[in-house]
Specification:
With 142 residues, this protein is mainly α. It has helices at residues 7-40, 45-52, 56-68, 84-106, 111-124, 127-141; strands spanning 72-75, 79-82. 21% of the residues are buried.
């Protein structure tokens, strides 16, 4: 039988996971919006909905939340833009994503699976683990 960790330890672990889940949605949106702005020059709600596989209404609600959080601005007839804070967050999320994918590839995971799995891992991995991933990947390439 497995022994449970101490209650405060277990509560802390679950709390960390809940915080990561709450921020994952915002992070996915800012990352996608930044990618659309970089590649297409605009990020419209309809395109965001198609790429995330959600409804237009869901995108509007999420973008409204991004606005409240100070991460995005909606420009009527022009789509969604990111604030400076939104751009910084998008860059951090992109860097985390690239590092997780690089680590999975170095472990022999096929590219498509590495990309899919990175979408979940990138939101839950700690800075400590990211630093270890970076050392591992650098050791593989160094």
């Amino acid at each position: 039988m497995t022994e449970l960790p101490a209650q405060p330890t277990q509560a802390h672990r679950f709390s960390k996971t809940r915080r990561a889940q709450a921020s994952a949605l915002l992070e996915d949106y800012v990352e996608l919006i930044a990618d659309l702005l970089d590649t297409a020059g605009e990020a419209r709600a309809a395109e965001i909905a198609r790429r995330l596989g959600v409804s237009h209404v869901t995108v509007i609600r999420s973008v409204t939340r991004l606005e409240r959080e100070g991460l995005a601005l909606v420009k009527p007839y022009r789509g969604v833009a990111l604030t400076a804070a939104g751009l910084r967050l998008a860059e951090r999320v992109r860097a985390r994503h690239r590092l997780v994918v690089a680590t999975l590839l170095a472990l022999g995971v096929p590219l498509e699976i590495a990309e899919q799995d990175a979408e979940g891992i990138e939101h839950h991995v700690s800075d400590t683990c990211l630093q270890a991933f970076a050392r591992f990947v650098e050791g593989e390439n160094g």
